[in-house]
Amino acid sequence: MHACLSMARLAAALSLLLLAGAAAAASRPDYVGTTEPFASDAVYFVVTDRFVNGDPGNDHRDQGGEHPTFDIPVHCADGIDGNIGYLGGDFRGLLDNAGYIRGLGFGAVWITPIVDNPDQAFTGSRPVTCSSSLTDRGKTGYHGYWGIDFYRLDEHLPSTDLDFPGLTRGLHDAGLKVVLDIVGNHGSPAWTMPVRQPQFGQLFDAQGRLVADHQNLPPQQLDPQHNPLHAFYNTIGPVDGEKGSIFDGNLAELSDFNQHNPAVMDYLVGAYLQWTAQGVDALRIDTIGWLPHPWWHAFVQRIRAAHPGMFMFGEAFDYDAARIAEHTWPANANVSVLDFPLRGALSAVFGREGQGYEALAGPLHLEGGPYANPYALMTFYDNHDMARLDASDSGFIDAHNWLFTARGIPVLYYGSETGFMRGRGEHAGNRAYFGQDRIAAAPRSPIFAPLQRIARLREATPALQRGLQVNERLQGDQAVFYRVLQHGRTAQTALVLLNKGDTAQAFEVRRYLQAGTWRDALDGGTQVVRDVLKATLPAHGVKVFVLDAEVRQPALQARLDAAMADQAARDARLAR
Predict the structure, then answer these.
(1) What is the pLDDT confidence band of residue 236, given thresholds at 50, 70 and 90?
(2) Where is the signal peptide (predicted)?
(3) Per-residue pLDDT reduced to its tens digit, 439-477
(4) C-alpha pair distances (Å), 513 with each of 466, 496, 546
(5) pLDDT at position 25, please?
């Protein structure tokens, strides 16, 4: 009897404590950069064909006839060649290495488009050279962006025992979300062929029926009024770069979809709903900047009607923040974007140019910026469409220390954990084959372990994933900033110290510093702080101190209150 009463009293006391904790959490101010669930997951980006060949049985090495598709080298004068043919990477190779990606500290993997591409190398356009761009003669659709049947898997990707749902299930079992790359702007190359080739400039529906055909005609010669097979495509001819975008109907001879034809929207939405139903967690939208805002708004709404809240981010290859920010606004696409303006600054700071940290302050747009929310942007320093980061090993380490502690959702291009093909452009090895042997050797790279260490720290530290950022200093080789998350039951402040210099440096932090016991999240131990925190960082080092407590420091509170007010004002403005 007495024991029962004791247990009842204990339960009542615990309930009161929980209620008191919830009440306290409800009464304190909210400090949060983003509540987007996907912000917890750093993203590893693979060009699937160039990652690992897990199943040679789907290589199709004899495909293409007189225009073969497998292993087409592009010779460079320095002896490091590129390649514009298929090289064998597939779903099996990706799934076999899911543990490798997860073990690095990533929570999601972004894969290039999976839809069917032409079965020959393209004979039109201008010749590909080591340094060329937007040239496609002799190139294949190994990258996936030349869709001809958006309802069918490209035959180079699955195995007899591994289809796309099997891949997504396997990646999920390994703890990885799946980001699918999609294209809404264009299909395959469509004209300039000396002799018309099958599939190029054509489009097939879910039943395999031909629904569109460019017929090797330039856009301005298409006649959609009299030929229904032309109705899927725009008829805009070459555009003077000074008068419009080169992407208006003239992007490397690609078949440019007609955004005014409702059948185009229906076709693409139907195709992508087919794939998203098979285990896709998020979408990366290719060339979002070259279709109008109303089109993307409608497209996104239709996808999210089936998948409420699905995270999406677009590629607008533009270094003007005001322009790419428009895609993030609720009235437009209402998606995140790849942060190209910050990317340009990251290259200047961590690449051979070696600018100081002050170059990063402006592109962060922490307050008063054009984005719907800068904390939900995808941050990166290179990708498959530009030269890889040209940096020393230390430069890569410094870049990763920043990328996984500062605002935004980090994206890393495959091989960057070893500095793979650093400085190389698209046709000069940027998309070179990585392979199982390089994965086995990757932990021996001096870049690998520091990346793994900081990526795992972000994964374990909510403030680094979604907390507001308050800069204490961004100057020269030193960066000091806070990431603060006070939301729900979480109250956490991370203090980040970065040294990108070649010698050890002593840091003293006083501004915005709250008294308390701060734990050293990377190296262990604690530091009891009253009015100053001191630390010595080795060359190219990082320290992260974490305080699990409500914010009470007046100057820091004022900065955080201002940031939240700025976000509220931005939300209200964009809602109008």
Answers:
(1) confident
(2) 1-25
(3) 999 999 999 999 999 999 999 999 999 999 999 999 999
(4) 20, 12, 12
(5) 59
Contact in structure between 296 and 224 (CB atoms under 8 Å): no
Q: Are residues 427 and 344 in the same domain?
A: yes
Question: What token pair was written down for 331?
Answer: 């009235």
Could you tell me which of 371, 350, 370 has the C-alpha nearest to residue 360?
350
Q: Residue 88: which of 157, 160, 171 has the closest Cα?
A: 157
The tokens of 148 are what?
């001809």
Q: Which residues contact 301 (CB under 8 A, 6 or more apart)?
A: none
Question: Which of 462, 493, 520 is the C-terminal boundary of a domain?
Answer: 462
CA atoms 296, 299, 305, 308: torsion sign: negative
Tokens of 365: 């747009």
415 and 537 in a single domain? The answer is: no
Name every residue whose Cβ is closer than 8 Å to that of residue 462 and which is 6 or more positions away in sequence. Answer: 40, 485, 490, 492
CA distance between the termini of the chain: 63
CA nearest neighbour of 97 among 178, 170, 161: 170
| Positive or negative: CA dihedral 416, 419, 423, 429 | negative
For CA atoms 136, 142, 143, 144, the dihedral sign is positive
Average pLDDT of the residues of the chain: 94
Examine the pLDDT at 239 and tell me if it is beyond 80. Answer: no
Strand 177-183 relative to strand 282-286, pairing: parallel
Residue-wise pLDDT for 482-515, tens only, equals: 999 999 999 999 999 999 999 999 999 999 999 9
Backbone angles phi, psi at 129, to 5 degrees: -125, 170
H and E: helices and strands count for the chain: 14, 24
Q: Given CA atoms 93, 96, 100, 106 in this order, what sign does their dihedral have?
A: positive
351 shares a domain with 433: yes
Same domain, 514 and 453: no
Domain span holding position 88: 40-187+258-462
Cα gap 46→434, rounded to integer Å: 10
Q: Phi, psi at residue 416, to the nearest 5°?
A: -65, -20
